[in-house]
Amino acid sequence: MTHFEKAPAKINLSLDVLGKRDDGYHDVEMIMTTVDLADRIELNTLVEDRIEVSLWSRYVPNDERNLAYKAAKAFKQKYNITKGVHIKIEKVIPVSAGLGGGSTDAAAVLRGLNQLWNMNIPIDELAKLGSTLGADIPFCVYGSTGIAKGFGEIVEKLPSPPPFWVVLAKPDIGVSTKTIFQRVKIDEIYHPNTEGVIQALHEKNFTKLCHHIGNSLEAITTSLHPEIIRIKAKMRQAGASGVLMSGSGPTVYGLVEHESKAQRIYNGMKGFCTDVYLVRLIG
Description:
alpha+beta, 7-stranded mixed sheet, 4-stranded antiparallel sheet, 10 helices
C-alpha cells in the first residue's frame, strides 16, 4: 500500500507575539497562507511495527528527531496501530527558512496515514494531534489561508488572498525559531496590524494587504543576520509591492501582482541570493 501527499510551504502575512505563557510557549496571532513550493511525501505500509524515514538532506535527520517520524509515532500511538510505515521525503522547501518545511512534512504524514490506513479521522482531530508536536503543524494540517492563535493550536479559516505572485529569497543561513523567541521582549517588539490584514483578505484588496503585512520577529532576526535587511531592500528596489520576512526567517518574500514583473524580480534576486523561487498561492 502506497500513498503520496503534497506538503506545501507557508508564508506569514502577519506574525504577532502577544505574550509569554506559563508553559514556556508564547501566545501568538499568525496569519498564514500556503504557496506551491512543496515537499513530496511517499508513505508505504510495513508489516513490521516500525517507522523508517528516508530523504536526502545534509540538514534534516532521518531518525526519531525528524518531525515526520514524530508525527507517524504520535499517530500510531494515538490510534493503536501495530503496522509500520516507510516515509520517503523529497525535500524542496529549504530547511530552517521560516517556511514551515518540517511542520508541513509532519502535517502531510498525519493526513497521509489517515488516507493510507482508511482511518476516516476528522481533520480537526488530526490538527489537535499535530499541536502536540509543533506550533505550525495545526495550520499546515488544514492548509489554505488562516489565522493561528494560542501557541498556534487554534486555527480559524480566512478568505484566500487575491491572486498574486510570490518571490521567495533565502540567504545561505539557517535560523533557529527557538533562539529567536528566546530574545523576544514583549514590551519592545513591533506589533503588526492583524485586523488590517484580515480586512484586506475579506476585501481581496492587494494594495491594502501589502500595506498591512508585518512580523514581530523580523527586527530580532535581522539584528542577528543583517543580510536579511539587504535582501528586503533589493526586493523593494526591484519593484515588489509588499516585502516581509516569513516566520522567524531568514526567507524574505515579495508580493507581486503581475507575472512579468515577478519574473524580472526573480531573475534579479537570483544573482543576489542563494535560494530564490517564484511561486503562486494555493491558499
